[in-house]
Write the structure tokens for this entry.
Amino acid sequence: MTQGAGVRAGELPDDLTAAEAGMWQAFRNGSVYDLRAGDTTVDDPHGGHPWGSERCVRARIVAWLLLDGPPALDGRVASLKLTGVQIVDVLDLAGGTIEPYVEIKGCRFEKEVLLPEARFTTVRLVDCAVPRLEAARVHTEGDLHLPRCRFHNGVRLTDAHIGTDLLLNQAIVYRDRRGRSLTGDGMTVGQDLQAEMLESHGELSLRGAKVGVSLSLRGSRLANPYGSRRALNAPQLTVERTLYLTPASVGDPLHTSGRTPARGTRVQRFECEGGIRLDDGRFGDAVDFEQARLILRDGQEVSLRRVQVPELRFLGERPQRGRVVLNGAKVVNLMDQATSWPGAGQLQMGGFQYEYLVPRGPFPLARRLEWVAAATPEYNPEPYERLATVLRNGGEDEDAREVLLAKQRHRRENLPIAAKLWGYAQDWTVAYGYRPGRAAVWMAVLWAATSIAFAHADHPPLKSGEHPPWNASLFALDLLLPVIDLGQVGYWQLRGGWQWLSAVVILLGWVLATTVAAGATRMLRRG
């Protein structure tokens, strides 16, 4: 009988070491093969303590078991469950179909793990030391679990298909030669992608990835100080529910909560040192920046260009440098706080559409106007008009007028000197028509002043015997009120300076009356 036939019958191959023979039997039995020494320092897969040959198995034997292993013992299900084992050489399962369940805990891989285009049911690598995981186009029917693992030269999951959940909680991933820590471009995850309290050193790339439920980076720390602009690069990301860039609860031992921690819980905030790119992303419920700490350098951005999401929760710490870009984004609810937005020149909102403002804490109108001004160092009417529309739709018509007045004042600063002076005059007198009460006051003051003045004017009648009695107040009012004829102006003749005064009064009357009429129209529309 050949060796292959013997293996299929369950016999041990001749060249196995003692450790490999034990692993072979545990595989057939479906039991955990545990080679730990019982000393936490020695057994730490990420520590420097060497593991002897008694804890080593060859990667070739592991691949043999998974791809063409012996049958299970009667009444058992064959599976590979390793704990405290060192796997020597490259584990190459590329293109293979692996039917047994795989669970490897607290193990060391001497060299990289190759899984491109391999097919699994469920794979769990927990708390393992792995030089590199190369798994482009890998396919799992169930979960891919990689929690607490350390990858010293990156993880590649390009175009991978994960049937249910992808777990990277508390993993530590260092960059590869291209500067990327985890590359998941085009990846599809059937349910949740949980990377809570992840440490990423390099660019975390999820371009065009799709997540069936939520993507959680709660408590994670992303850092890319190596010259690249981004720590999180995820344009065209699709998440059916929520992207969490929020705190995670910290216990003893460390654990993640699966939701935003309750008040009073010790937490670790999401922290990102480097740019974030979520351009053209689609999110079914929300993008949540609760308490996020964003550390940007000059030229770096938190870019949300053309993002579409029902709720944007911009509730993190104000970035001191860099920019926040919302150009073309579409949001239903904008939940924010005054202390989260950056200052002038650090915010861009061209074409940013939102329907409702839901401020967290005090956010007075003056601060909201500073928010808009920060986004428009060069005059742009659109952010002002959007804010005014949202306020008006919410019944805050007075605040909406204040926003439009601020728009005119900002516009004035970019006009030629003559137009600027005329703008100041409009502002001082009638507030560009957005404060009609002021125009009415000016009309009353002007009427009183001109009434007193015309009382001293020389006013011979145009036709003797065909004129009403002279009334300086009615004459002044007749000049001020356009269209309306009070029966005074057409009967008296003024000369010299009085004629020029009447012309000025007529001009001011038209300006003020038009302003009052416009204000009254807005009041009636509101009613």
